[in-house]
Design brief:
With 352 residues, the chain is mainly α. 73% of the residues lie in helices and 3% in strands. It has 14 helices and 4 strands. It is globular.
Length: 352
């Protein structure tokens, strides 16, 4: 009888754990009521389509909306692109940390994680904004070091039981990894913006072209699995998307070069007056675009595979649900963070 009571108690506890995990998954997976209402207005909802084609149309409509928003921000000039980088970084960090809290089950560290995020952004502050602070670069670095040390002391003192060590150290590493992947790349992207909006626009657009082309080839022609970390990716999609990217990259770069406003350097988030033809990279710009396109078509998707593997390890399909058909912000922008660091390195080692 005692064994039977024990079994029944274990079952009750297991059901409670499963119920809690189910609620946590729903928080991460279910869109808000406002988003549901907005999604209901999509034209594809009024078409009699199979789930496969319904998903295709929803993803396409969301993609068109996202591209429209992107080029609207481009029309605002450097401030628009700077704000876009900040918003994407902020939303992506929120999604990653929500997943972290859910997986590690750590409580009471939300404020700590966001303070670490703020300290990292203070350290990697865009030079244009940093000039507004009443601190020299060395003073800013010293302040960040002091704040970081304070947070480490706070973290150590927050551990009251040895049984908490593993999960709390896991969240500590989780937060640092998120900052390395998001904050540092966003900082490099803003530095790239100083060389001209064209580099920002091209690198972000070309990886998007690669993603769209790979999805289309995979949807219509895909049959051979590419990698276990991302089960829906196919060899046909990867190869087809890569070829389209390499072919369209130089053509798109040539098109952007026709707008001198985009090619001139920026200072203090304002475009300077210049003659694009005298810029050191003007004559070789199409070749540089081809090189960036080659990277976007071959190595660029690896960031998506990396994030897919991370989600699979956490038993999640998406980081969020903000964008219908895509998932969360990081699901849409994962490869863009890798492109940000590559574009910066390419500019500073080869172009300039």
């Amino acid at each position: 009888m005692a064994d039977e009571e024990l079994d029944s108690n274990d079952k009750i506890e297991l059901e409670k754990v499963q119920e809690v995990e189910g609620k946590e998954r729903s928080i991460l997976a279910e869109p808000s009521l406002l988003l549901q209402l907005g999604s209901a207005l999509l034209p594809s909802n009024y078409m009699n389509l199979s789930p496969r084609w319904q998903g295709w149309f929803v993803r396409g409509q969301s993609g068109i909306l996202l591209m429209s928003c992107f080029y609207t921000l481009v029309s605002l000039g450097p401030p628009g692109l700077f704000c876009l980088t900040c918003m994407v970084q902020l939303a992506s960090f929120y999604e990653v940390m929500q997943l972290g809290y859910s997986v590690t089950k750590v409580e009471g560290m939300n404020t700590w994680c966001w303070l670490l995020f703020c300290v990292a952004n203070l350290q990697y502050l865009d030079p244009t904004v940093a000039r507004l602070l009443p601190l020299s670069p060395s003073q800013k670095t010293a302040l960040c070091y002091i704040l970081y040390t304070f947070l480490m002391v706070w973290f150590v003192l927050s551990i009251r039981k040895t049984s908490q060590c593993l999960t709390r150290y896991c969240l500590l590493a989780w937060t640092h990894m998120a900052i390395l992947f998001l904050t540092v790349q966003a900082y490099l992207m803003n530095l790239t913006l100083q060389h001209g909006m064209v580099w920002y626009i091209f690198s972000m657009s070309i990886i998007t072209i690669n993603d769209i082309a790979a999805y289309m080839f995979g949807f219509f022609c895909g049959s051979t699995p590419l990698i276990v970390l991302s089960p829906k990716k196919t060899v046909e999609g990867y190869v087809g998307g890569g070829l389209v990217t390499i072919l369209l990259g130089p053509a798109y770069g040539y098109y952007l070069q026709q707008f001198p406003y985009l090619t001139c350097p920026t200072i203090n988030l304002s475009v300077t007056s210049c003659h694009p033809e005298v810029l050191p990279h003007s004559s070789l710009f199409i070749i540089h675009c081809a090189a960036i396109s080659l990277f976007a078509s071959t190595v660029g998707p690896v960031a998506g595979f990396f994030c897919s593997g991370f989600k699979r390890a956490c038993n999640r399909k998406n980081f969020g649900s903000l964008i219908p058909g895509h998932g969360g912000v990081l699901d849409r922008c994962d490869c863009m963070f890798l492109m940000a660091s590559f574009t910066y390195m390419y500019l500073n080692t080869i172009v300039m």
